[in-house]
Amino acid sequence: MKKYILIAPALLAMAACGGNKQAADTAADTEMATITYLCDPMGLKIDSAAFTVDADGYAVIFDGKDFTGWRGYGKNDVTEKWTIDSLGNMHFAAGPGEGGDILFGHPFDNFDICFEWKMSEGANSGFFYLITEVADSTLVPYACMSAPEYQLLDNANHPDAKNGIDGNRQSASLYDMIPANPQNANPWGEWNTARVVVNNGHVEHYQNGEKVLEYEIFTPEWTERLQACKFSETAWPEAFVLMNAPHGGYVAFQDHGDELWIRNVRVKEL
């Protein structure tokens, strides 16, 4: 696997030492932290001949034929619980076996990504974007620690739909921060369309053809939102540091233990 070295401010070292703010502040004055990040083993580019570009200018990065460009978060390969079913859908199977989030191996800064999804009754999952992937998975074992989440949820049957504030854990919401409005998700077993646009810090979520929220990321308001949710400096300091640091990054679908289907994943770099 190819790797590259990123010299990052020592604030990122806070994630490795359990969020000791005083230690991080001291380190910030005296040194820089060296962190190794994973890079796609194929040196993947989405304009490769491996990906079809459709009439709207989107690269089709999952077409139902194979997992070209995809791998497990923190891994070289796709894990066994992610398969392609007989209809050409990406499928996450509940039950035993090796799972974990599935990640596309080319990072994006500004992009427009679309996909379709459906899930089993009572299921919970998510789509992460702007992921910072750290090679040492003992430091950052989950994609959710560094990335905003477009929530995928059976609103009617999963208890998390009633948690959070004003429905901000329901489908298409910026998880635990901003509710999707209107809430127009289709029931479990039916397909939904999703779209996320990130452009120079401005983010938009769409669900079933409607824009349901927008916000500015890596701003003072973003930091305030983090401090008011489960990723706050007090509740989860490692995640707070990573999610509060401007960066581009990877996209991934979540292993939340529940059955999920994905199809027609398309992306355009802006």
Question: Can you describe what's shown?
Answer:
The chain is mainly beta and 270 residues long. It has a single domain (45-269), classed as Jelly Rolls. It is built from 3 helices and 16 strands. The protein has helices at 21-30, 220-227, 237-243; strands at 3-8, 33-38, 52-53, 59-62, 70-72, 82-84, 90-92, 102-108, 111-119, 124-131, 149-153, 192-199, 202-207, 210-216, 249-253, 260-269. The strands form 3 sheets. Strands 3, 4, 6, 7, 9, 12, 13, 14 and 16 form a 9-stranded antiparallel β-sheet that branches. A 5-stranded antiparallel β-sheet has the order 5-8-15-10-11, with no helix packed on it. It has a two-stranded antiparallel ribbon with strand order 1-2. The longest helix has 10 residues, at 21-30.
